[in-house]
Design brief:
Elements lengths: L8 E7 L2 E3 L5 E3 L7 E8 L3 E2 L5 E2 L8 E4 L13 E5 L3 E5 L1
Antiparallel strand pairs: 1-4, 1-8, 2-3, 4-7, 5-6, 7-9
């Protein structure tokens, strides 16, 4: 897959929130409200601020990005890839 996001965007693979019990059952983490996680696969170019200054990227390829839920967008249930805006990322694991 050869995808290059636009400036300020990230192309990510969603990391499942499923946990496996000792007996082998998978349980979804639907009770807790927490940020979603995704593996960053591609990074768009640097975003320019209103003053014309280039803003540094907060995540790099290979990082795990924690992003907040957006009220008007549900995560795709059958797909594993998503585009995320720079403003939606709340934390990064390196």
């Amino acid at each position: 897959m050869n995808i290059k996001p636009l400036a300020g965007k990230y192309f990510c693979q969603i990391i499942s929130d499923l946990r496996q019990t000792a007996s082998g059952l998978f349980i979804a983490e639907t009770v807790k409200e927490k940020p979603h996680k995704a593996l960053v696969l591609a990074v768009g170019g640097q975003k320019t601020t209103i003053k014309g200054v280039l803003k540094a990227q907060s995540a790099q390829v290979g990082d795990i990005a924690h992003f907040k839920r957006v009220w008007n967008r549900a995560l795709p249930k059958d797909k594993q890839y998503i585009f995320i805006k720079e403003e939606e990322i709340v934390g990064v694991e390196r």
